[in-house]
Amino acid sequence: MSSIITGEAVVLELRPASFAARSLGLLLDVLVNVVLFILILILMSSLWSEIDEAAMRTIVLVSVVFCFVMVPVAIETVTRGLSLGKLATGLRIVRDDGGAIRFRHAVIRGLTGFIEIYLTFGGLAIAVALFNEKSKRLGDILAGTYSLRRRVPAEPALPLFIPPHLRSWVALADIGRIPDGSARRAVQFMRQAGRMAPASRIGMAASLATEIAEHVAPAPPPGTYPEDYLAAVLAERREREMNRLVKARERSNRIGERLHRLPYGRDSS
Hints:
By secondary structure, the protein is mainly α. It is 60% helix and 8% strand.
């Protein structure tokens, strides 16, 4: 599972599609393309007796390129990574950084896909995907993309609060740059603490509090429970990040207003 961690220590989970889900979506897309190809040949069948063999081969070749390369590329470009098979299986093709794909990504995937899916009957795509962490096929590796699960249940926002007896301390505490990994583990622990066994909950809270304490000064009041300590630090950190964003937006608005009042040009005469 891939993750993007925001400044408020909110983890945005990006879950790559499983090999089975990708295979099913790909099979549906292949069936659609094959049906489209057959329909074109049926519609053109009335011309077979009127054209020569060279023209017939040209028509078949153009139809192959149209159905198995141009159509998939066009659909993925317009829909930013979707297709009928991906819609049915709840998947989407995205860039490695989680962004929407563009035309060049779709072209690389489409051209490579014709080779690894149709010319090798899916053998090359399967061989590459089986030995890849995100079940990427060769086209994904070359284009820098992967298949993302769209149907991921959204987790409710984590209600962090500062315990009353720690408010005065955390308001003056110097909360440094907590590593992303530590922040992610702390947030996940606070989210799952209520479902953990008491002994495991206490031990994990103590371990995370010790890890985060290296980036926070001064130390909390004596006798502070590790879980209260984590809640106070994470809540204060989130509050400071939100205040920083609000101030940055206000400063940007003030600069925009000043620029708007400036004349766009002066009469040169």
